[in-house]
Each structure stands twice: as C-alpha cells, then as structure tokens.
Amino acid sequence: MAAEPAVGFVATGLATLWSAPFNDDVVSQLLLGERVLVEEVRPDGWARVVAVEQPAARLDPRGYPGWLPATQLAYGSSPSPRTSWTR
C-alpha cells in the first residue's frame, strides 16, 4: 500500500508549476501559502505535487498536478495566512 502524500505549503511569493523537471512547459503558478500534496521529492531537488486549491478534474481529481523545486515548499502550518480577494 502506498504512503499518503505529505501536505505542504508554498513558501515563496510565487511558485511556478512545471509539467516536468527541467522542462520549459509552465502549467500553472502557485501563491504563498497554497496547500499542495507532495507525492515525491527527488534527489535532484524537484518535488511532484498536486495543487489542491486549483481544480483540474481531468488531470487529477485532487487538484492540478505538476513539479516545482522542493526548496519552494514548507511543511507544518501555512507560512502566512491566506487572504481572500475577488477578481
């Protein structure tokens, strides 16, 4: 049985979500404090995550999947309170 993904948070003001490590294909961007499921952290410093606050049902029912540098993640409580705003 596979282990449950760790819950992490974006620890930088703006994190780019890539389709694969060392790839030029940007799939989304995440804001400081956004919650992610961390499915894998590779020795080369890349983390495979699911951005749970960004719906992408056809890709993953839990949220938008992608890769980001593991140094842009924090664990435990969110690094800053989320602020709501309207478009």
Key words describing this protein structure:
87 residues, mainly beta, five-stranded antiparallel sheet, globular
Please provide a written account of the structure.
The structure is a single chain. With 87 residues, this protein is mainly beta. The protein is built from no helices and 7 strands. The strands form 2 sheets. It has a 5-stranded antiparallel β-sheet, with no helix packed on it. Strand 2 and strand 3 form a beta hairpin. It is globular and about 30 Å long.
Short description:
With 87 residues, the protein is mostly beta strands.
* SS field, number of helical segments: 0
Q: Which strand order does the major sheet show? A: 6-5-4-1-7
* Spans where pLDDT lies below 50 across 5 or more residues: none
Mean pLDDT equals 88
Note the beta-strand portion.
35-45%
Kindly state the percentage of residues in helix.
Answer: under 10%
Q: What is the structural class? A: mainly beta
Cα(first) to Cα(last) distance is 42 Å
What is the CA-atom radius of gyration, in angstroms? 12 Å
Shape assignment: globular
Order of H and E elements: EEEEEEE
Number of strands: 7
Instruction: Give the biggest beta sheet.
Output: 5 strands, antiparallel
